[in-house]
Amino acid sequence: MINKRKKLSRYRGSHTHGGGAKKKRRGSGHRGGVGMAGSGKRADHKKPMVLKLYGKNYLGKHGFKRPLNKVKYERTLNIEDLDKKIDFYLQNKLVEKEKDSYIVNLNKIGFDKLLGSGKPLNKYKIIGKASEKAKLKVEESGGSIEEK
Hints:
It is built from five helices and seven strands. By secondary structure, the chain is an alpha/beta fold. Among the domains are: 33-63, no CATH class; 76-146, CATH 3.100.10.10. The strands form two sheets. A four-stranded mixed β-sheet has the order 2-3-5-7. Strands 1-4-6 form a three-stranded parallel β-sheet. A hairpin with a 2-residue loop joins strand 2 (95-98) and strand 3 (101-105). The protein starts with 6 loop residues before the first helix and ends with a strand.
């Protein structure tokens, strides 16, 4: 391999380093600005051609993005909602019936946690997380909760 001189050293003494006239290469002014610069005439005028082509929403910022990676959501289910949908879960074999109680695996039906709103109309054996209020209500109705 041949030892090749760097371009920088070749430009030494050339005044503009291959950039043409002195005024060029001074910044983004030679290119007409950065980003949304230009085509707006002077003062506070809007950019008529841009507005005509793309509409009023082309300029400026719109909305925001939620920081989803920072917020962790738990999919929750209330006791009353479980009572309402118990027949649906039975038909789709997401819940099993054993004598007079229902065996409910929360993960299987698509939830992370059971909450205590409403009165349990049936006996439940629940597998998964539950709030304190939900535990009390389920155990009072003769059921049980098994946390994984």
